[in-house]
Amino acid sequence: MAIEIRGMSKTADNLLVLNDIDLAFKEKTIYGLLGQNDSGKTTLMRLIAHLRFPTEGYIEVDELDIEEHSDVLKNVYFQTHDNIYPKRAKLKQIVKWMGLFYPNFQMDICSSLLEKYHLNENEFFNKLPLKKKTLFRSCLAFSNDVDYLLLDEPAFSLDAYHRNALYHDMLASYERYPKTIILSTHAIDEIEELIERVVILEDGQVLIDDEVEALVNRAYSVKGDERDVREFLQQKTILGQEYRKGKIKAYVQLDETEMELNENLELKPLNLQELFIQLTRDVYGEREGE
Ligand SMILES: Nc1ncnc2c1ncn2[C@@H]1O[C@H](COP(=O)(O)OP(=O)(O)OP(=O)(O)O)[C@@H](O)[C@H]1O
Fold first, then answer.
1. In the chain, how many domains are there?
2. Is residue 224 within 6 Å of ligand 1 at its C-beta?
3. One MF term from GO for this chain (predicted)?
4. Pocket flag, ligand 1, residue 37 (CB < 6 Å)
5. Range of the domain at 207
6. 232 and 275 share a domain?
7. How far is CA 93 from CA 81, 96, 119, 127, 212, in A?
């Protein structure tokens, strides 16, 4: 069971937004979908949810082409920031529609989440402040026991307390009903511990599709005098370099046999956000020292 995307491209307004994407999202796995602004993350999710159509290629959910089997979309829920509700829809009506469309929508869970965030079912969605709109959307998403949950910047506009609460709700929903979650965000630090795999898009193409642990375990910075660093870097995979106060800090991918270094050098592991910055930094041709 999986979402499979094969040879998919999307052109909009003469712009190639997604370019020949081949990607599989495995069952019961939490993914981070990362990329710089305009890299194509939202477009990819809209295509999976069948709100947009590919120019080329196809998408299968559980081996069924979504173009021909719209029924499989009852098993895919996309939490979007698009304004999709009628102007005068009250929260309780939206909750009711969710229950009618999605067979595994959990009304009781949704009610308790609405209560937790002090959301009044009689309010109009369009009149809610931004923060409450975001919270309401996440109440719907985390009550919906679909096999594929797509979240586009789910914590947008929330303070740190509520962002943390939202991630907690996401994990609770996963534990109650394990599912594939595709979580797109720029707050990489906040989700590193939550996700198992990471997909990074760059200019509409897949740059990375890997396990977070495998990726991060190979990523380091090495700092020291130019001569020592340059010597160490020979035959290594260099991601980037920065010059600061007469020293060089280089970002590298190392395997276990490459860790030995001279005592004047400082080796530090990178976290996912630091690695992301290095992996995507050459978009504007700013990679230094090469
Ligand atoms: N319907 C469309 N018409 C024209 N351009 C589009 C359309 N849809 C997307 N684009 C363009 O495609 C690019 C990718 O957009 P998308 O929203 O998918 O990126 P993103 O990675 O989600 O960005 P962000 O992180 O800023 O939200 C952008 O340059 C956007 O302007």
1. 2
2. no
3. ATP hydrolysis activity
4. yes
5. 2-214
6. yes
7. 18, 5, 14, 14, 39
